[in-house]
């Protein structure tokens, strides 16, 4: 259960939670009424008005089949295209008439994929590139444009699946996982999206994982990166809408479950009887669903489809129920996958400990103009939820308490506070003093909360709505209630320049 506070009041020291203020104020009811009149009512009316065409569009979609777009003769670039899902995607895109750039560090495998793609009557080239390096990605862009042409379809598929806890392996192993699984998405989007904007045409596909909704212990680095990819793609989509490019450049984020791509991993699951209880998809099955969703301009593709519903519901469950559900489904198998050497050995020996990580309210709300920040804060959220699972697996749920803090704006930068005041966002977003946030964090830790929201109640309610609603409604809700925030970010960027 999250630590929730009612409404924030303004004292001589700044905005603090009402229950932490050292004196009562007679103006709070007036401020609350003003907030309702100035913000809640107008935003609600705006939301309902814009909801009507969205609902009509949804009803039409239920009756009429979704129109599929043509990507024939488009240039598609697939990272990690030498083997597994990447190879299957290259072949499936070729069947749609795409010319394919196969990118991988496995040059021999990439060349084999190219030869098979060419048999389908399209052009294809293999490119050797370390996509975790930005300079290498820029060179890749120039090379692809010279040999095939400008990229219209970017598929960020390359990734490393590591059964690894936070302190297992070398530090360089963790760094490599983050670089390949996450930073490569930043670099390729940064390199190829400007051309898409210029041509007013493009599609960006990000391969995340169902782990972006169901964090599991023993896979913490992997889970962190997939949470971040989820946030990256959601924020990117919102930013494209804001820039009026939603009909020109589309995004699709993919959340697959188990895929039969790594034989060693599949053998391990088979020995633990996982394969008798969970359906494993072939790369070709997943590629079919991805491309089908892409040509229908779907923002999200879950494999299997039922996970779209289950994932939203799972995130809204209390932590205790999430633990129980994971324990029942996994049946204690996860501890057998690997041994663990954790940084919390001392806490385990003493049978006590608290771990607090500071995320942000933007770790729950994917906002545009803050893509990098949002991705990292989603990653913190995913890391702590996976760590929470791991601590429970190891039997320390009652003695070691991980917690994640989700504050709104904190009054640490005068320029930011001045901008919020200038845009009249100080009441809507709530500015907190560092001391107030610290008090809320410590209080939440001592109460054993796993999620601590240093926010007014209505923002916590807003977050709950976002996690339950479909993406189209989520976008509308964010746009109607946070419409001024993009202006704030643009002004901040201009001042920094």
From TrEMBL:
**What name has this protein been given in UniProt?**
Short-chain dehydrogenase/reductase 3
Provide the topology term for how it sits in the membrane: Multi-pass membrane protein
Task: Tell me the organism.
Answer: Anopheles funestus
Q: Name one GO cellular component term.
A: membrane
What domain of life does the native source organism fall in? Eukaryota
- Give the UniProt subcellular location, in the record's own words: Membrane
Q: Enumerate the InterPro entries for this protein.
A: NAD(P)-bd_dom_sf, SDR_fam
Q: What does this protein do?
A: Catalyzes the reduction of all-trans-retinal to all-trans-retinol in the presence of NADPH.
The lineage is: Eukaryota, Metazoa, Ecdysozoa, Arthropoda, Hexapoda
Q: Where are the transmembrane segments?
A: none
Which family does the entry's similarity section mention?
Belongs to the short-chain dehydrogenases/reductases (SDR) family.
Q: Which residues form a coiled coil?
A: none
């Amino acid at each position: 259960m999250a630590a929730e506070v009612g409404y924030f009041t303004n004292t001589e020291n700044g905005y603090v939670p009402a229950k932490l203020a050292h004196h009562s104020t007679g103006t709070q009811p007036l401020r609350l009424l003003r907030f309702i009149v100035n913000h809640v009512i107008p935003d609600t009316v705006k939301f309902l008005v814009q909801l009507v065409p969205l609902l009509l569009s949804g009803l039409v979609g239920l009756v009429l089949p979704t129109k599929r777009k043509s990507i024939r003769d488009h240039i598609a670039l697939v990272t990690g295209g030498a083997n597994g899902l990447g190879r299957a995607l290259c072949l499936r895109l070729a069947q749609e008439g795409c010319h394919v750039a196969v990118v991988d560090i496995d040059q021999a495998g990439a060349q084999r994929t190219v030869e098979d793609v060419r048999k389908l009557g399209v052009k294809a080239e293999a490119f050797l590139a370390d996509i975790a390096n930005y300079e290498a990605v820029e060179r890749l862009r120039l090379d692809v444009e010279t040999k095939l042409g400008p990229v219209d379809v970017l598929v960020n598929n390359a990734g490393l699946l590591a059964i690894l806890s936070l302190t297992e392996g070398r530090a360089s192993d963790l760094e490599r996982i983050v670089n390949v699984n996450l930073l490569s998405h930043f670099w390729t989007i940064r390199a190829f999206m400007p051309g898409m904007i210029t041509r007013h045409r493009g599609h960006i596909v990000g391969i995340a994982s169902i782990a972006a909704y169901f964090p599991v212990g023993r896979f913490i680095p992997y889970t962190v990166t997939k949470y971040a990819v989820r946030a990256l793609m959601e924020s990117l989509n919102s930013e494209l809408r804001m820039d009026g490019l939603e009909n020109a450049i589309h995004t699709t984020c993919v959340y697959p479950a188990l895929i039969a791509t790594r034989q060693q991993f599949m053998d391990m699951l088979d020995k633990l009887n996982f394969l008798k209880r969970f359906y494993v998809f072939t790369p070709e099955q997943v590629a079919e669903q991805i491309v089908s969703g892409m040509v229908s301009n779907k923002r999200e593709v879950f494999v299997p489809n039922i996970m779209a519903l289950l994932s939203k519901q799972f995130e809204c469950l209390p932590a205790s129920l999430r633990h129980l559900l994971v324990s029942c489904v996994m049946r204690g198998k996860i501890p057998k996958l690997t041994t663990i050497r954790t940084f919390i050995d001392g806490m385990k020996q003493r049978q006590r400990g608290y771990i607090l990580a500071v995320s942000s309210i933007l770790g729950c709300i994917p906002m545009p103009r803050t893509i990098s920040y949002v991705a990292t804060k989603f990653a913190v959220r995913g890391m702590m939820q996976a760590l929470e699972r791991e601590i429970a697996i190891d039997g320390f749920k009652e003695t070691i308490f991980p917690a994640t803090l989700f504050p709104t704006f904190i009054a640490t930068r005068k320029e930011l506070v001045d901008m919020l005041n200038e845009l009249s966002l100080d009441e809507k977003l709530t500015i907190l003093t560092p001391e107030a946030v610290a008090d809320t964090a410590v209080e939440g830790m001592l109460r054993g909360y796993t999620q601590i929201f240093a926010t007014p109640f209505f923002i916590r309610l807003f977050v709950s709505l976002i996690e339950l609603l479909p993406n189209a409604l989520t976008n509308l809700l964010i746009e109607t209630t946070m419409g001024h925030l993009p202006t704030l970010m643009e002004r901040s960027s201009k001042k920094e320049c």
